[in-house]
Amino acid sequence: MSLSLDRPRRPRPTRLALILALLLGFGSLAYLLYTRLSPVATRLVRLRQYWSGPLAHQDWAVHAGERCGEAPFLMPTDGLIGFVWGDSFRPGKVHQGLDIFGPTGPDGLGETPVVAAYDGYLTRLPTWRSALIIRIPQDPLQPERQIWLYYTHMADSSGNSFISPEFPPGTTQAFVPAGALLGHQGNYSGDTDSPVGMHLHFSIVRDDGRGRFLDERDIRNTLDPSPYLGVEVNADRLGDRIPICQP
Question: Which residues contact 86 (CB under 8 A, 6 or more apart)?
Fold first, then answer.
């Protein structure tokens, strides 16, 4: 006789119990999705409001070259910080930087300035139409390490660059002081049929320990910009509030 026959049989769950279990499971999933996606939905509605009347919502905006309190970085551009570090747009996709939407709206290409947030050394790879990266040899918050500032979408939908002519493709390690004009916001996505909407994507990228930047597309290779800018831009802490410099 097998030992399994010595154990009492478990009662089979009723159909009602199975349905309740499924509903509870889906309810938990729905709540999780709501708590993650609701702030993003709120931010999208707010962006539409901002673009429809930026003058009426000037208190929502940050400004290129301004510093929030004692934060080490300057604001890299003008506009509404529409999406933040850690926002989730779809399962498995977590936003690894900030999207800052200029006050000229989706059609104001090449008008909203973009500046260096900190002193550093600018590189623009030969194939980069809309992007550049700035090496900061000493992280102002952790001087023992090097970090990088990545900027992108600085071109129109066809790839015509809005980066300053001072930094052509192939530029390597050109020194730029904090506040230096780097170019202007654009909407380039790499696909001419699918522009992203006029804004700047800005992120702080980790160094690989050998003097090279890691792949910015993975949030694990980036840093929370909040302490560097003096503005809460971590999605988990921000909720659906407006990310602005608090007095």
Answer: 94, 95, 219, 224, 234, 235, 236
178 is written with which tokens?
């904090």
Close Cβ partners of 134 (under 8 Å, ≥ 6 residues apart): 116, 117, 118, 120, 121, 122, 123, 148, 149, 151, 176
**Type of residue found at 137:** P
* Eight-state DSSP code of residue 186: B
Q: What are phi and psi of 199, to 5 degrees?
A: -170, 175
* Side chain identity, residue 84: V
Q: DSSP secondary structure string, 54-80?
A: GGGGGGGEE-TT-B-TT-SSBP-BSEE
pTM of the model: 0.84
Q: Return all residues near 207 (Cβ < 8 A) that are at least 6 apart.
A: 145, 146, 147, 148, 213, 214
Q: In 10 A of CB 111, how many CB atoms? A: 16
Instruction: Give the pLDDT score at 173.
Output: 98
Q: Residue length, the chain?
A: 247
Listed by start position, the domains of the chain span 29-238
| Contact (CB, 8 A) for 201 and 154 | no
10-residue mean pLDDT series, the chain (247 residues): 35 47 47 60 93 94 97 98 92 90 85 97 97 98 98 95 98 98 94 83 97 96 98 96 90
pLDDT value at residue 25: 52
CATH topology of domain 29-238: Glucose Permease (Domain IIA) (2.70.70)
